[in-house]
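We read letters as residues; the fold follows as tokens. A sample entry reads:
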Amino acid sequence: MGGLASIGVPGLIIILVIVLILFGPRKLPEVGSAVGKTLSEFKKSAKDIMDDEDEITVKEPKKPDQG
């Protein structure tokens, strides 16, 4: 699955330093808040999609065995 889990602590430290240089210490809370809201919306949307898929599979009638 890789992704964010494979970055590790040194990678996260480097990313935080780059963000600090780009946005400065005054903008960090604002940037963090925006990222948090974005992640929360993404998780909510992904959960809704998964729930919809589960609903669709439950509502499909099962076909009788033909043999």
